[in-house]
Amino acid sequence: MRTEDLIDQLSTGLKPVKRVWNPAFAAMVWLCLAAAVIGAGVAFFGFRHDLAARLASGFDTPQLLSAAATGILAAFAAFQLALPDRDRRWALLPLPAAAAWLATMGWGCLADLFRAGPEALRLSTSFPCLGFIVGFGVPLTVGMLWLTRHAALIRPTPVAALGGLSAAALASVGLSLVHHLQAAAMVLAWHGMAIVITTLIASAIGPRLMRAGLSARAA
Amino acid sequence: MLDAALRSSAAGFLLVRAERASDAADRDARDARWSELMAAAQAGNARAYDMLLRECLPLLRAICRARLRDPADVEDAVQDALLTIHRVRHTYDPSRPFRPWLAAIAERRALDRGRSRGRSAAREVEIEAAGEVAAPGRDAEAEVALRMQAAHLRDAVGELPTAQRTALGLTKIEDLSLAEASGRSGMSVGALKVATHRALRSLRRRFGVEE
Hints:
The structure holds two protein chains of two kinds.
Chain A: H1 3-11, H2 23-45, H3 51-57, H4 60-81, H5 95-116, H6 127-147, H7 156-178, H8 184-218
Helix pairs in contact in A: 2-4, 2-6, 2-7, 4-5, 4-7, 5-8, 6-7, 6-8, 7-8
Chain B: H1 2-42, H2 46-67, H3 71-87, H4 98-120, H5 127-134, H6 140-158, H7 162-173, H8 178-185, H9 189-206
Protein name (chain B): RNA polymerase subunit sigma
GO molecular function (chain B): DNA binding; sigma factor activity
Organism (chain B): Falsiroseomonas bella
């Protein structure tokens, strides 16, 4: 087919379209949704008994703040990257916050080591952690994929990965309010692993779901 | 003498700068015009959309030509880019320049086309060579009949709905896998299967072939 004929076909019977939300607004909507869902989870399971003491001791606060910042920045970056004309370096936006989270947890491990000795670094299994973060993270990621489905034809994988990172980081904040994990090494291992798993699941299934979403909208 | 030469080179320099400035001004004016046309297209103005796509065509071709050697590939990539532009036209924000939005899409489609070109090159046979093998000693009349049939088929394919034509082109003519075709067209695998099936059925009916 000639390209000029294609243009004729595309413009014949053109339908008006609703513009996508700007990234800041879209991120805000999605963060409100995530906060509501994770908040409901926290309300259902109840705050951990030692939350006030932990927050007052000053160790959990930077961890929570850096995880929340990672979630917020990753969401904003995902909505930016979903648009064709945005710089791909937006993908780096959540990295400083993620590095701060890792640094906080590393510092926590050292502090535990000095306080309690090598025993503090011993890992045991904590599947509820994994379940909470992946269980909340994956459905929230699907919400993000729906909102960024227009990225299916542009760069679906980084957008989906950032969506997964954002959802999992926010779920990790929720989990920290609910679940009792004393040792920083445990938090680092289980929260970290759950966030990585959610991000990988998102980047694996994300592009396909986005395409399906985009086709559903076009149909 | 020296003075005159200096003066003339300074004048030349100023002229070039003035031309560059006027080029940039032209580009800005064109960008602003394209932004307006796209905003109108988003509101459903088909004439603005048609005009915009036609005006962008040389730029799309230039971008694809920079990445692909074969003119047929360039044209295919341009068409892919047009289809993508159409499907994501709601992602353009008229408060931003139009050109980077358009260029990003065209570059992506040209890259995809280049990649699939690299993959399929090994499986292809040159058309001329294939003709010699397939039709030894074919007479002129049969040749004409064959060409007419091909023309009818092309017309019939051209009259299919866009989704069916895209699906048929990607899965049967370019021989892509369903996953690749889905990636290229943005249609889901299920939608591709249905559209290809319907396209083949309507072609069979048209040419009186039994199902």
